[in-house]
Amino acid sequence: MAQVVEQQTQSQIRHAANNTISVMEQEQGDPQDEKSMNRETGMRRYFRVDISTQYADMLLLTCCLVSGLMDSTIYEGNTIFVGLGGSNGKQTSKPYGWAKSLTSITCFVFGSFFFSRFSRLLGPLRRTTFIASFLLQSLFILVTAAIIQAGVVQGTMDLIPDDIDWNQELAIALLSFQSAGQIVGSRVLSLSEIPTVVVTSVLCDFASDPEIARPLTRNVKRNRRILAFFCILAGAVAGGWLTRVTGRMQVALWVAGGIKMSVAVAWLFWPERSREVVVV
Predict the structure, then answer these.
(1) For residue 105, how many other CB atoms are within 10 A of its CB?
(2) What global pTM score does this model have?
(3) Which of 10, 26, 86, 114 has CA atoms 20 to 30 A from the CA of 183?
(4) DSSP state of 158
(5) Which of these, 215, 223, 231, lies nearest to 68 by C-alpha position?
(6) pLDDT at 89 over 50
(7) How far apart are CA 249 and CA 146, in angstroms?
(8) What is the pLDDT of residue 85?
(9) Residue 156: its pLDDT value, please?
(10) What angle do CA 169, 198, 139 make, to 5 degrees?
(11) SS3 of 246, please?
């Protein structure tokens, strides 16, 4: 009888030990699953962190070059023609030229509204925000180049009408909408001295700077304005040369889209913002 009781006790002990081991294994989990979860958490954190604003002016200056390339095409409107078109109408050789400018201004306003809200929704300085924003901008440029390449919009210089081809409104709308993303980005990065799209604003701020004559290392904002102007100018000259040599507008847009795509990729590897340690 005692032997039977002893066997039952040993069986219960073994059963309890097995249950304990099973519980411990469940709590520890599979090492591979744990590594996978840690990797996933690390990736999520990487894309959700805020990027550093240090040296971000280099990427905005690259965007100035992109703006110059696009300005060399006929698909960027000019605000003054809205007023001239409305006042002169049929007396000008381009009675509908003002429509390009009106489309450009309207789409730029909508683009500013979209990108600013988009930035606030995802987080202004979040890595994901900048990657998505500049990726979208580059896609708009590349889509514009593609529809011109496909003949939906006329891109051959000798065949472009003097006044307006209403299909051009599509290209103007896409380019104007995406360009708003650049200036929104400069505001988020607190680099308003590089608006990237308005050369007259850059020149005004440069000329009105009360510290314009300070040494090179003592006025960083002035230096950025000068570089922004020359980057836009260089882009416009390069785009004009490409258009003249090839006779096609879309070439400059393909180059501009590729450069802006590289900016989007650069945000992917940009360092994160360091956290300030407050000593009490």
Answers:
(1) 15
(2) 0.78
(3) 86
(4) G
(5) 231
(6) no
(7) 11
(8) 45
(9) 66
(10) 50
(11) helix
